[in-house]
Amino acid sequence: MNEKYIDLLHQTTQYSINYIKNIDTMEVFPKSLKELNHLEQKLPQKGFEAKEVIQFLNHIGANTTTAMPGGRYYGFVNGGLLPVAHAAQWLTDTWNQSSALYAMSPFTSKLEEICEMWLVELLGLQQGTAAGFVTGSSNAILCALAAARNTLYQKQGYDIIQKGMKNAPQIKVVFSEDIHSTVKSALTILGFGQEDMIMIPTNEYGIIDLKYMPTLDSKTLVIIQAGNVNGGTFDSIDEICNLANKAGAWIHIDGAFGLWAAASKKQKHWTEGIEKADSCSTDAHKTLNAGYDCGIVFCKHRKALTSALMTNGAYIPYGEQRDNMLYTTEMSRRARSIAVWAVLKHLGKEGVEQLIDSLCDYAEYFAQKLVKCGFHLVIPVCFNQFLIQCDTDENTKKVLQIVQNSGVCWCGESIWKGKTVIRISICSHATTYEDIDKSVSVFQKAIHQIKQ
What we know:
By secondary structure, the protein is of the alpha/beta class. It is built from 12 helices and 11 strands. The chain has helices spanning 2-22, 50-64, 83-95, 106-123, 137-155, 160-163, 181-189, 237-247, 302-309, 337-372, 393-406, 433-451, and strands at residues 130-134, 172-176, 197-200, 220-225, 250-254, 279-283, 295-299, 376-377, 385-389, 412-416, 419-425. The strands form 2 sheets. It has a 7-stranded mixed sheet with strand order 1-7-6-5-4-2-3, sandwiched between helices. Strands 8-9-11-10 form a 4-stranded antiparallel sheet, with helices on one face.
């Protein structure tokens, strides 16, 4: 059995190596998806040999997957995959550690403790801030807002754990009209309704317009952005945090990709004041390029986070060491901290800063090249994001379709202040100036084509 197992792993390794070798020459988004039709089979009565299954899977997947690990995928703020993170993920799968309790895996418990310490220092958060490693920033937001909700009720003398939501006093939730949809989803899951929510208008750059900020108090939950999902812009973090802190409100920062600006001397001005927030959320699989299934929730109030997420059971042996499940909504989960630790150890502070600065520099370079080609830059480049458009919505869509169908690069469509835009995110360590020049060439041909 072991020989077959080892042979299977060798086979898989070779498939993976071939994929990485070809990543720069393969179509970024596959033009033909006919191979996917071969997946439409009935569940077999009898199983197949493992080698045959992996061979079939590779045959389909190698030809129909999107080249996200490459340097010319600019859609959805999808981060790349650093080689050290890739290798760490292989070890993670091999070790197959359940990360819920110290009693299950002292190794992953210690790693999360170290990663928490390193990340708090790297981002300049308040010492002692807790960190939980979750699937993504969507879940990180849910965890943070659960802690916020319970704490704000507690301030009003209401114990939601005992009494539930039925007769709970109202909490006012304040956020930007451009807030990410996952924030609204998290609020709904936690029992908040439309009548609890106040959406603040934003200015032409997508930043909260402070003149519309309502009066805050200790019954208020404020949610702001470190990186607008479209334009990349940051709310006035320091100023809003000061207002919230003075009023006794809870303030959360949604920083899925932008929170990492705090690790760069050039970019940290965007995140000035984040240490004043009660909680933050981010993704290590975006800007840090640590691979998917890796979000992080930060909470200044450790007990508020753990009490909101705690699960009890006669079989659950909490101890004096870190029990990772206290910081997430999950018990059974993969050891996400292994890849995060590997990336931070490999890059160090200087390497993380260089990665962030390079993404921002590439975004600026890309945007200026497209402006010279005749595209309109919707707002100034901010961090690693920018938006462009043509003279009409129709032409913008035509250009985007040509670009997406080219196979050379891929980016997405969005709406900005009622108009169609092309949304470009530089989020992969693999991106180079050569990649950008190739991509610009496609955009240039597209805009010429629609003008003929």
